[in-house]
Design brief:
homodimer, two-stranded antiparallel sheet, DNA-binding
Chain lengths: ~240, ~240
DNA sequence: ACAAAAGTGTTCGGGATACACCCATGC
DNA sequence: GCATGGGTGTATCCCGAACACTTTTGT
């Protein structure tokens, strides 16, 4: 199939009806967090609105490209693997009056009906110091147990992302990106416990993950801890 | 929250950028099928185009509502449970020249970039004689192993629906709607084999499904078969 | 009697669960 | 020497896989 098989795409312009929203998970050895942003407002306007990083898609980019671009624009994060998990299309999802005024400050058609495609991603919190871009006034981590009221239906989107994360994690399809490069088995267990939200038996857990060959021991141990130093591991190649 | 909390929705008008497509599965005791349609064209135009039932969404309906409505308009099927499984947003997905002419016959903005939300559903083939509506010239079942070339990216959408169906079925989240009201264990096994695409052991299969309590024996047996008549079962309540 | 599908039990291996004590280090 | 988390093995149960013969009906 060649370029001649396609009619010309429209020019580089925003689609006012389709957006993407990104639920970015981070893990800091004790709790799961999601990345939230506050949008810049006009000078002097002190009302704040917290939201997931998200925005309209361009007419000539795919949804996956839009998610990567939006995440980069709002948080400076680049090269993150984002996975689509579901579409949200309630006709009133962006029509609550509590959001209108705020929305008007950065959308040309604030009352347009917008469906949004939810994406989730993982990053190592230690590798990333949230940094606001020109489009966001603040970017920060929030523990998933204390998410504030968010814009639109972003609380619902976050909840569903957590559910999908749990399901994918149990199928070993995702989640290991949250670990530091070198980690101990206790840290790994803590990640499992945070995501699955329950305690696991230490001996059984170790037997299981060691048999799976997903992790490889390093010729290295922890240092500077005030107890028996732990063996360090890394993720196996090929995953 | 009252009606005053929402700004007024736009009038009843189509959103030219968002559509839904429905992958409807049927089962006839030996193979899985999907429901396909051919759109009506002008009199005398013999070129045909086969597609999944799907169309643009209205500005004031949810995606779920749109999927139900579109399915009803194109196939007369009503009251079917449809499950969203993913969004498709390649900017060129409706821009192949092979589709343009055909698309022009029923879309006002045939060259608009459209993202679509895929839904899947199950029905008992025995309960449904496909019936073309005023919008479709033909509605028919097609074995999933011999799907013809479809419009746009509908082949890809169908493939992904089958994958999701398999995954959901293995988690017992979906699929039993495909069975007739009364069925034998062999029919149930055949459904499993068609969906999972592999043979199962009869004795192990029976042990497993009987233990799960998802089905209940009826005080009834097959009649008129030229072999030992089988016990009939129905799905358990609450299921 | 024959054809056709229904129906039925046992064995084996692997994975999940439950559970308690000694070890290496820093202070 | 003590506080702190690191590290280890065994017994049990349940589930999934493999496997072959008898039973009931219609013709």
């Amino acid at each position: 199939m060649t370029a001649d098989d396609y009619i010309q795409p429209v020019l580089h312009t925003l689609n006012p009806h389709v957006s993407v929203d990104c639920v970015v998970f981070g893990f800091d050895r004790s709790a799961l967090h999601v990345l939230l942003i506050e949008r810049k407002r006009e000078q002097g306007d002190l009302r704040i609105k917290t939201a997931l990083p998200g925005d309209l898609v361009w007419e000539d980019e795919s949804l996956d490209e839009a998610a990567s671009r939006v995440l980069k624009e709002l948080t400076s994060l680049e090269g993150i693997f984002l996975k689509q998990f579901r579409a949200f299309g309630d006709p009133n999802r962006v029509r609550d009056v509590k959001d209108l005024d705020w929305l008007s400050s950065f959308r040309e058609q604030p009352q347009a009906r917008v469906i949004t495609i939810g994406y989730y991603a993982f990053i190592r919190m230690s590798d990333f110091e949230p940094e606001a871009s020109s489009f966001a006034s603040r970017v920060f981590w929030q523990d998933i147990h204390s998410i504030p009221n968010l814009a639109f239906d972003h609380n619902q989107i976050t909840e569903e992302a957590i559910e999908v994360l749990r399901a994918d994690f149990e199928n070993r399809k995702a989640g290991f990106e949250l670990l530091p490069e070198k980690f101990t088995l206790s840290q790994l267990q803590s990640l499992y416990e945070c995501i699955l939200d329950r305690k696991l038996d230490k001996r059984n857990f170790r037997k299981k993950v060691l048999k799976e060959n997903l992790i490889t021991p390093l010729p290295e141990k922890q240092t500077g801890v005030l107890h028996k130093p732990a063996q360090l591991f890394e993720l196996s190649q090929h995953g």
